[in-house]
Specification:
2 helices, four-stranded mixed β-sheet, 38% strand, globular, alpha/beta
Length: 116
């Protein structure tokens, strides 16, 4: 009986991760432990594990987040001066999704998508 999936992404600096996800993306902290962080926004929960030696140039952490009203979310992030991935502006994809992407401070790729 599966009920949810919670991605676990690497982080080098907990304070930088907290700053980005809370101040840029609007998440709230729901758990903060030695080497581990738990954040939530609405029904989405993401966990982070400390990986101080992570090379962001070789990090392949990725999360796909389904959303409603993607255009409003995109505009709110632009208004908050959140940097959009250079190749990830809001576009309609051939697989029936409207998507955009962000890179967090550790280059974890966050892709937001809405069915069209």
């Amino acid at each position: 009986m599966l009920t949810a999936i919670i991605p676990k992404l690497p982080m080098r600096n907990k304070n930088a991760t907290i700053d980005y996800y809370i101040n840029q993306l609007g998440f709230t902290e729901i758990g903060n432990y030695e080497g581990y962080l738990m954040l939530q926004k609405e029904h989405i929960e993401i966990h982070f594990f400390e990986f101080k030696d992570l090379d962001p140039k070789t990090n392949y952490g990725q999360v796909y987040i389904r959303v409603n009203d993607i255009e409003s979310l995109y505009e709110s992030l632009l208004a908050n001066k959140t940097e959009i991935h250079p190749n990830g502006s809001l576009t309609t994809k051939p697989w029936g999704q409207k998507e955009f992407s962000l890179l967090d401070p550790d280059t974890n790729l966050l892709t937001f998508g809405e069915r069209i």
